[in-house]
Structures are given as structure tokens and as C-alpha cells.
Design goal:
The chain is of the alpha/beta class. It folds into two domains: about 30-185 and about 340-350 and about 370-405, Rossmann fold (3-Layer(aba) Sandwich), CATH 3.40.50; about 205-330, NAD(P)-binding Rossmann-like Domain (Rossmann fold), CATH 3.40.50. It is built from 13 helices and twelve strands. The chain has helices at about 5-15, 25-30, 80-95, 115-130, 150-160, 185-200, 215-230, 250-260, 320-325, 335, 340-355, 360-385, 390-405, and strands spanning about 35-45, 50-60, 65-75, 100-105, 140, 210-215, 230-235, 240-245, 270-275, 285-290, 305-310, 330. The chain has a seven-stranded mixed sheet with strand order 9-8-7-6-10-11-12. Strands 1-2-4-3-5 form a five-stranded mixed sheet, sandwiched between helices. β1 and β2 form a beta hairpin. The chain is globular. The two termini are about 35 Å apart. The protein binds nicotinamide-adenine-dinucleotide (NAD). Nicotinamide-adenine-dinucleotide binds near residues 214, 217, 219 and 239.
């Protein structure tokens, strides 16, 4: 089975057939600058010792310090982190922010840890990697299963180890620990600005029926933002189950249900069904906001959406991309659609470095301008090159990285 990194390299190869890039440049981009694996010993609450494996991959820093989240997941390994770090290099270039690409992770199911164990693990990750991260070297952030609280523990540990107290070493912190206004909803908000900029060009109706896979940070905020804007969220899911309502789910009530029961399953305002069937529900817009490799060659034929917006990283595989393009189903690629998160992370970094605090209105105004500009640029480039939005986004990102590497 191809790894996410195989998919990333496949995407690279396909995109570079459309514009000239030297073989030397492409060869360089197939290898991360650095891949680091560390052992993180953690004393568990019962006094026993467990050793977890942690990662940081620093892919490319031609455009600025490495930037990318830290993922806690039982299936996370160095290959996955490497693919995510590669995509971050392109995403930062697509968003046109002064950052390179990196990613981190720990192989762990954090739901099996107590709060104390989670804190010791997070501090351990930072202690093990404090010498390779830094405000001008490598700036981590949250990703799947990592939270503002975890970022605050890590920032505190970094200050203890290095004596440097500037919070700019890590972003996605809580507001009172130097976080930015708007960071919590930035990924979904950025995706929404992209959607609004492209909606009519992609032939989508003013009021879309939307299906969202995942009801975590990205998915839940997307549900809230799209439904507030008048679209109908007709189905969503988490790792346990899916819920549907063809008249539109009440997202505020679903949020309360999920908070109190731990899952969307059994929500009274809809019908519960098998989560693995979610992506095949009829809709105008499908928003994958969970994990990678969800829409593949073996199941793409069952997708009924008229367009896909990737808030998750890597949810559509390259062969599924081709099948969707052939059917005229546009896929708004992750490196554009979810780049609002890293863009506001970069705003946080800038605010910390300059000792500033911007209002939420300032943050979203800047974000909107940037996302709309890049979305329209990518759409125009895809038309010029007669290709899909992903290849066009790759070409633009690669040109920017190439210019920086020169
Ligand atoms: P999260 O942990 O907050 O939420 C993940 C959601 O997906 C949860 O609701 C979980 O139950 C669900 N899920 C997990 N496995 C599933 C499965 N097999 N089927 C269906 N649902 C499943 O994570 P998040 O921060 O929302 O990230 C989701 C995706 O968005 C990831 O691919 C991440 O890399 C990407 N992303 C997130 C951000 C951000 O700012 N949070 C930024 C850019 C990209």
C-alpha cells in the first residue's frame, strides 16, 4: 500500500510535467533537510515507565523557518510526518507566507493518557527537540489531537530548557499565553474564504448542501461557519459514527450533544449511520476534515459530491484526483484550502516577535485578502494550464520555492 509520502511524490511528479523545473531542483525536493526521531520516556501515573517515539521532519526552509504542526496519533510514523512536512513546504509557499515546511508527531493514542501523562509527554517532546526548534529555526503548532494547552506546556518547557521566553517558538497557544485571536477557527475560516472566492466559478449554488467528514477542530468550525452563512450541513461524522439530516443538522445542538456524550452518534436531530459511508452521501460540497487517504481509486466512484474542499491533509489520493477531474468534480486542494491555519499561525508568530496583539477583525481581514488572492491565482493558473487546481497550486508553490532556493 502506498504511503502518504509516495502520494506526495506522485503529486510532485504529476505537477512538474506542466512547467519546467530542473531535474536538480526536483531531486532536492524529494528529500527532507532533516528527519529526527527521538525517544520520550514518560513516568505514568502508576509509577511505570513508557517510552514513546517522537518525530520532527524539517523538509525545506528556503522561504523561512520550518513551520508545521505536531500530531498525536497511534498510526503516526516518520513516513506520515515526512509527507505532511513536504505538504507544509508547499502550503506555506501557496499561502505566500515567509515560512518553510516541517511537521512533528508522536506515535500515541492520547485518549489513553491522563492529563498529567499528556503534559509529561508534551514537555518530553519539547525537551528532546528544543535544540532544533526556535522562533527563527522551526516553529511548531497544533495538529490532530494536539491543543492550545499542549502548545502552552511546550512553550513553557522551551523557556525552561533554553532560557528564551519569547512565545514565538510555537504557535496555536492559548490567548493568555501569547496566542492570536482567530487561531482556533482559522483553518475552517480560511477554507471558507477560498470557497466563497471560487464558489460561482466552480458552478456551485448559492446555498450548498454540505457534508463534512470529521467534527474536530477543522470540521466542527467548518460546520459552524458554513451553516451560519446559510448553507445546509446535511451530514457529518467523527471516528465513531455519522449523522445525517437532509433538512440540515442543527450544528449548535450537535456540538452540545458531542460535548456531553463524546460522539455525534445518537444525535436526536438526525439519523445515525456508519461513519465509513459518510463521503458517499449526496451533496454539493464534500469537506473531508479528518485524516488522509479517505477518497481512493477503490471508492471514488461512489462519491456523489459536486465539489470537494480538502480541510484535511491528503484526503484524496492522486488516482482518485484523476477520476474526479475526468468527471468534472473540482477538488480544492489541501495546500490551498486549509492554509488559513498556518497563515494565522504566522500572524501569531509575527505578533509575538513584535510584541503586538491584533484584534480578531484585523486577523480575519488580512486572512481574507490573502486567501482570496491565492485562490483566484490558482484558479486562473489551472485554466491557463488546462489542469486541476492541485497541479496549478503545486506549480505556483514550486515556482516560489525555486525562486527562494536560487
Ligand atoms: P481533530 O483531532 O480536532 O479532529 C479530527 C476529527 O476527525 C475528529 O472529529 C475525529 O473523531 C475524526 N476522525 C478521526 N478518525 C476518523 C475516521 N477514521 N473517520 C471519520 N472521522 C474520523 O483534528 P483537526 O485539527 O480538526 O484536523 C483534521 C484534519 O485537518 C487533519 O488532516 C489535519 O492535518 C488537518 N488540518 C488541521 C488544521 C488545524 O488548524 N486544526 C490545519 C490544517 C490542516
Amino acid at each position: 500500500m502506498p504511503t502518504p509520502f509516495d502520494h506526495a511524490m506522485n503529486q510532485l511528479e504529476r505537477a512538474t510535467k506542466l512547467a519546467f523545473f530542473s531535474p536538480e531542483f526536483l531531486e532536492r525536493l524529494r528529500y527532507p533537510n532533516r528527519q529526527i526521531r527521538v525517544s520520550i520516556p514518560v513516568t505514568m501515573d502508576d509509577g511505570s515507565l513508557r517510552v514513546f517515539e517522537g518525530y520532527r521532519v524539517q523538509f525545506n526552509n528556503a522561504r523561512g523557518p520550518y513551520k508545521g504542526g505536531i500530531r498525536y496519533h497511534q498510526d503516526t510514523d516518520i513516513e506520515e510526518v515526512k509527507a505532511l512536512a513536504f505538504w507544509m513546504s508547499l502550503k506555506c509557499a501557496v499561502a505566500n507566507i515567509p515560512m518553510g515546511g516541517g511537521k512533528g508527531g508522536v506515535s500515541v493514542n492520547p485518549k489513553t493518557l491522563s492529563a498529567g501523562e499528556l503534559e509529561r509527554l508534551s514537555r518530553g517532546w519539547m525537551r528532546a527537540l528544543a535544540d532544533v526548534v526556535g522562533a527563527h529555526k522551526d516553529v511548531p503548532a497544533p495538529d490532530v489531537n494536539t491543543t492550545p494547552q499542549i502548545m502552552a506546556w511546550m512553550a513553557d518547557e522551551y523557556a525552561k530548557v533554553t532560557g528564551e521566553t519569547n512565545g514565538a517558538v510555537i504557535t496555536g497557544k492559548p490567548l493568555d499565553a501569547g496566542g492570536s485571536e482567530g487561531r482556533g477557527t482559522a483553518t475552517a475560516q480560511g477554507g471558507f474564504y477560498v470557497f466563497e472566492a471560487l464558489r460561482s466559478e466552480l458552478g456551485l449554488p448559492e446555498q450548498c448542501r454540505v457534508v463534512i467528514q470529521g467534527f474536530g477542530n477543522a470540521g466542527e468550525h467548518a460546520a459552524e461557519i458554513w451553516s451560519k452563512a446559510g448553507h445546509k450541513i446535511v451530514a457529518t461524522c467523527d471516528s465513531k459514527a455519522a449523522v445525517r439530516n437532509p433538512d440540515g443538522l442543527d450544528i449548535a445542538a450537535l456540538y452540545v450533544h458531542k460535548k456531553s456524550t463524546g460522539s455525534v452518534a445518537g444525535f436526536a436531530g438526525g439519523e445515525t449511520f456508519e461513519g465509513s459511508e459518510l463521503c458517499f452521501e449526496p451533496c454539493d460540497l464534500l469537506i473531508p476534515a479528518a485524516l488522509e487517504n479517505q477518497i481512493r481509486q477503490d471508492n471514488v466512484g461512489r462519491v456523489q459530491a459536486k465539489a470537494i474542499l480538502e480541510l484535511a491533509n491528503g484526503p484524496v489520493t492522486p488516482d482518485a484526483d484523476d477520476a474526479l477531474f475526468a468527471r468534472g468534480v473540482p477538488v480544492i486542494p489541501d495546500i490551498l484550502a486549509n492554509s488559513g491555519g498556518v497563515t494565522v499561525s504566522t500572524f501569531e508568530w509575527e505578533q509575538n516577535l513584535n510584541g503586538e496583539h491584533w484584534s480578531e477583525a484585523q486577523v480575519f481581514e488580512k486572512l481574507k485578502t490573502m486567501m482570496e488572492r491565492e485562490a483566484v491565482g490558482i484558479l486562473n493558473r489551472s485554466r491557463e494550464l488546462k489542469t486541476d487546481l492541485r497541479r496549478a497550486a503545486f506549480v505556483i508553490a514550486l515556482e516560489r520555492i525555486k525562486d527562494a532556493m536560487k
